[in-house]
Specification:
With 273 residues, the protein is an alpha+beta fold. It has one domain (7-271): DD-peptidase/beta-lactamase superfamily (Beta-lactamase, 3-Layer(aba) Sandwich), CATH 3.40.710. It has seven helices and eleven strands. It has helices at 45-58, 75-79, 104-118, 122-134, 153-164, 171-178, 254-271, and strands at residues 18-24, 27-32, 39-40, 140-141, 149-151, 187-189, 193-195, 205-206, 224-227, 232-237, 242-248. The strands form three sheets. A six-stranded antiparallel beta sheet has the order 2-1-11-10-9-8, sandwiched between helices. Helix 1 (45-58) packs parallel to helix 3 (104-118) and helix 1 (45-58) packs across helix 4. The radius of gyration is 17 Å and the shape is globular. It starts with 17 loop residues before the first strand and ends with a helix. The relative contact order is 0.20. Residues 1-5 have low confidence and may be disordered.
Length: 273
């Protein structure tokens, strides 16, 4: 049931089942649809992995400049899609740091590096250091640190709220988590083509000046988040002091490319300021 200005009415334009939650710093501002349905998060999982790595960094278990992945690469390269790995393979396209090449394998390898450093299963690390403290009781972790999480939008909203008002990371490590890594790199944004540049932080996408994009025209360049190819997405805009989580019953498609930016701009118009 909607509790705000009705910006989430745009969800009807998807043409298939969709739900969403709008968050401000005080909590939920608006919600619509089945926010308790368990949904595959797919690549949204990468954001949990980024925070899990940042927590290990904060505890002194890892360093972002640790050698990891292909020769010449570091944990920083892996988390920022700059290691040179192929999408789903340990083969490489180029040397580290030359291009932003989106890689599930790179994120999985980053998690394996953290796992070795903390001496425990990475999924357990995420559960204990992120999910349990935030009350994400319905999070399911099924192996892959790049695409393996699933859960309800209510759990994703708790995670988005943490990125809006961080409590797990201190100021310096949260800044490192969300800072653009290798800011000059060009690359292909899955579903949206070549972006020059194509900014990413540590497991988080940064909006920057990308166009076209799945966030709104009025989202700030500092907006962070991710979308997953099974139709789940979220963004956190620190300038607007807002977050939006969205889940749909359809794989990412042209409807998402058209509706998601409009939805974001409606949420910003109704709730920002």
């Amino acid at each position: 049931m909607s509790t705000g200005a009705g910006a989430l009415g745009v969800l009807d334009d998807f043409g298939f089942e969709a739900a969403a939650i709008v968050l401000g710093p005080e909590g939920v501002r608006e919600r619509r649809g089945d926010v308790e349905r368990i949904r595959p998060w797919r690549s949204v999982t990468k954001t949990l992995t980024g925070v899990g790595a940042a927590l290990a960094l904060q505890e002194g278990r890892v360093d972002l400049d640790d050698p990891a992945g292909p020769p010449g690469a570091t944990l920083r390269h892996l988390l920022a899609h700059a290691s040179g790995y192929f999408y789903e393979s340990e083969n490489t396209l180029q040397a580290p740091g030359l291009r932003r090449h989106y890689s599930n394998h790179g994120i999985d390898e980053a998690a394996r590096h953290v796992e070795r450093a903390v001496g425990r299963d990475f999924g357990d690390w995420v559960q204990e250091r992120i999910a349990d403290p935030l009350g994400m009781t319905g999070l399911y972790w099924e192996g892959s640190a790049s695409v393996g999480a699933s859960g309800a939008l209510t759990d994703l909203a708790l995670f988005a709220a943490e990125l809006l008002r961080p409590t797990l990371l201190d100021e310096a490590h949260f800044a490192e988590l969300t800072r653009i890594q290798f800011p000059e790199l060009v690359g292909i944004m899955p579903g949206f083509g070549k972006q020059e540049p194509n900014p990413f932080a540590l497991g988080l996408e940064v909006r920057g000046e990308k166009s076209p994009h799945w966030t709104g025209a009025h989202n700030s360049p500092r907006t962070i988040g991710h979308f997953g190819m099974r139709g789940t997405a979220f963004w956190v805009d620190p300038d607007a002091d807002l977050a939006l989580v969205v889940g749909t019953s359809h794989d990412f498609c042209d409807a998402h490319r058209e509706v998601m930016p409009r939805l974001a701009d409606e949420v910003l118009a109704a709730h920002a300021g």
